[in-house]
Every structure is written in structure tokens, then in C-alpha cells.
Write a structure and sequence with these properties.
88 residues, mainly alpha, two-stranded antiparallel ribbon
Length: 88
């Protein structure tokens, strides 16, 4: 299956679901917000909210983790526990 090449290729219901999951993740992992960053196709829609043309979109939520810091704080296991406990 190929990814849509235009925003119209994504259903509004699906893109709203992605945003809701992102909010859930933010609540779950809020204590670790300094060790996480959103990357990938979701970023343009978050930072270019007033763009004339909608970003093509995505159905993925990509997070980059500061693994070194999480390891030092022995927090990586807690992040995994939180994600699994939240149904991820």
C-alpha cells in the first residue's frame, strides 16, 4: 500500500485519531518530555498550523528518545512500562 501524496488522501477521522493518540502519549510520557522529541511526518502539521496548503499528512507517530539520558536515570524501563500500561 502506498502512502497518499496529498492531504486529501487521508480521512479527517484518521488524522484526528493520530492527534488524539499523540495527546495520549504526551499525557503518559509527560514526565519524560525533556528526553523525547516528535520526528517524522507529523511534525509539519504541528509547526505549520497556518500554512495555506495542508501538509500531506501521516498515520505514524515517530518519537526519538534520548536513550543515553534515559539509561543514566534508569528511566527507559519506566517509559516502556508506561507505554505498555497505556496500551501501546
Amino acid at each position: 500500500m502506498t502512502k497518499p501524496q496529498h492531504a486529501s488522501g487521508y480521512e479527517e477521522r484518521s488524522t484526528e485519531a493520530v492527534r488524539r493518540v499523540l495527546i495520549d502519549l504526551a499525557h503518559l510520557l509527560g514526565a519524560y518530555r525533556e528526553q523525547l522529541v516528535i520526528v517524522g511526518g507529523l511534525v509539519p502539521s504541528l509547526i505549520l498550523t497556518a500554512a495555506e496548503e495542508a501538509h500531506v499528512g501521516t498515520m505514524d507517530i515517530d518519537l526519538a528518545l534520548d536513550a543515553a539520558t534515559l539509561k543514566e536515570e534508569d528511566a527507559y524501563a519506566e517509559v516502556i512500562r508506561l507505554l505498555e500500561g497505556g496500551g501501546f
